[in-house]
Amino acid sequence: MADSTASDAAAPVSDPTTLRRLYGRRQGHALRAGQAALFADLLPHIAVPEAGALTATSLFGHDCPLWLEIGFGKGEHMAAQAAAHPDVGLIGAEPFVDGVVGALMAVRDDGLANVRIHHGDALDVLERLAPASVDRVFLLHPDPWPKARHAKRRFMNPGPIDRIARVLKPGGEYRFGTDHPIYCQWALMQMAKRRDFHWLIDGPADFQVRPDDWPQTRYEAKARRLGHEVWYFRWQRA
Ligand SMILES: C[S@@+](CC[C@H](N)C(=O)[O-])C[C@H]1O[C@@H](n2cnc3c(N)ncnc32)[C@H](O)[C@@H]1O
Buried b vs exposed e over 98-111: b needs ≥16 C-beta within 10 Å? Predict the structure, then answer.
């Protein structure tokens, strides 16, 4: 599904913990004037601070449940969840400028007060959140890196999953969606090795049917248009 060309520019992997970092923010085409203005005017008000520990209070000014979306694309899912759950603080991380602009437009148009955006690598956010402080983490249609030699670049690898496990509260949920068969198989193999997560499943419908409280992402819609199957997974932090 995803075009991995942009990510090819990133550093090669050699870290044995398979913790691969993105270097720098990524820009597609030049922003139009309105988009640039939104970026300059709104983002500073809702950006995740550049340094320091990240807590509900430091981000939202009060205690609240925290949900984190890794690679929110243009932000459709994050915005829909924020609108449906005004009592929850949504943190989204996305390195693509176009994606951040998309999310900013949703925040402005829908008047969302409970979204904070990190324009960069989700690993940076994961490392600054306190242990057991997050109720839900979303990884929806991550870049598949389908070639075997690029497998260590997938977010579903021990290093990133360890960091997700660290920040999730006991009983917290890790949601993952993909239409990519290779990534799907890889992710299931990674998660099957873990004793710190339980797969929330009663039968095939649990991974074949999108749960009602799982708004469709842009990539999922595209996958459906192409006739792909899409799979949905929920793991609970032990
Ligand atoms: C295939 S797109 C899917 C976007 C969106 N989740 C959707 O389903 O429409 C994958 C996204 O993950 C982002 N991404 C890749 N690595 C990331 C990282 N380390 N931290 C945050 N976002 C990342 C990419 O920039 C891209 O927007």
Answer: bbbbbbbbbbeeee
